[in-house]
Amino acid sequence: MDFEKSIVYFQTRSEVVEAWIRLREWATNNDKDKITYYHAILSTECKSDIVKRFKSGMIRILLSTEAAGMGCDISDVIRVVQFKCPRDLPSLIQRLGRASRDPTLSGSGILLIPSRLPVVGSVDPDLLAFITSKDCRRKVLNTVFGNEHQLVDNCCDQCNREPELESKGEEANNIPGEKGSPTHTTNEKEI
To answer: Which GO terms describe its cellular component (predicted)?
Structure first.
C-alpha cells in the first residue's frame, strides 16, 4: 500500500470500527496492519503505541473520532477526510488542520451530496455557511471567530478557483442513485 499518511475522522466509535473492518477486508494481507483506529476508549498505552507507529509511517491510515485531534502532535499528515457532517465548524477546522502544517503538501476538499446532509436545522449554522459558501471561506472563518479578514495568497478554493477543477465538480453531479447534485470544492490540489 503506497498511501500518503491519512486520517479519516468519524463522529462515532461504531463508525470507526465499521470502517476499519471494511478497509481491512479490502486490503492485501501485507497492508492490513497499515490501517488502524483510534478513539478515546482505548487504553493510554494503546493510544501511545498507535501514535508512535503512525508517526513512524508503519500505520498509513488512521481512522479516528475527534480523539486524534486532541493532543496528538502528528505533523506530516497529507490527507484528512471527514466522514459525514461534523457537529460544528470548530471541530471541522481542528480536523482539517491536521493536514495543513505544510501548505506545499496538503490541500483540502469538500464533497457534499445534498440528499445525505442532515436536516438543515440540525446543522451548526456556521458550519453550513462555511461548507456552502460561494465566497471566500477564510472570510467566513474570520467572521465566525471574530478575526479581521485580510487578503492572503493561496487563500481558499473559492478565491483560487481553477477552471479544470470546476469541470471535475460538474462531472461529480452525475452520481448514480443520488438525488440532488453534490457541491464539490477543492483547495490547492485534488485529493
So the answer is: chromosome; cytoplasm; nucleus
